[in-house]
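We modelled the chain as a single entity of 197 amino acids. Its sequence is:
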Amino acid sequence: MIGQLKGKLISKNPPEILVEVGGIGYELLCPMSTIYELNSTDQDVFLHTHLSIKEDSHTLFGFITKDEKTLFRELIRVNGVGPKVALAILSHLSPISLVECIINENAELLAKTPGIGKKTALKIIVELQDRLDKVELTSASTLAMSNKVGQNPNTKQALAALQSLGFKVKEANKMLSNIEDQTLSTEQLIRLALRNK
């Protein structure tokens, strides 16, 4: 597997770029967010990569941030979403917007991505909602998730406890978001959340 590349940007022809590493030119497909970050040719670039191997092709995908790569890998795990569709989603939505879209179940915004219908958008939201907690995101995407359930440091533990009791992520978030007191312990949060159900 090729996990990352560091080299010189030779050319940009969206969504494809050519990066030279040690005399070898690698063609990569990138989301538009990554393409916009790459200002000019002849600059040194560092990209997180994902190698997709099929019977008739080996395709390398490049991402400027680790979060984009992580979300790309989660998207292609959804049945019916291939690498090209995942790339289109990440070109349409930033990682933070995508995470918020999934948390808020905003299928309309997701369906605005070319090649994505409302049915596929709903399927992506349903499948990724439960997996989003287990995904390690580094930047502000994590902020989007933690802000959803408030500022209390015990909220994250209460959210995990509610999920282990069988509540879905959105349901648990909604139950906890109604609690305004940010000084409660984990146990108090769980008790109040169950009353808010």
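As a brief sanity check on the tokenised model: The chain is about 50% helix and 20% strand. The CA atoms of residues 51 and 60 lie 5 Å apart.
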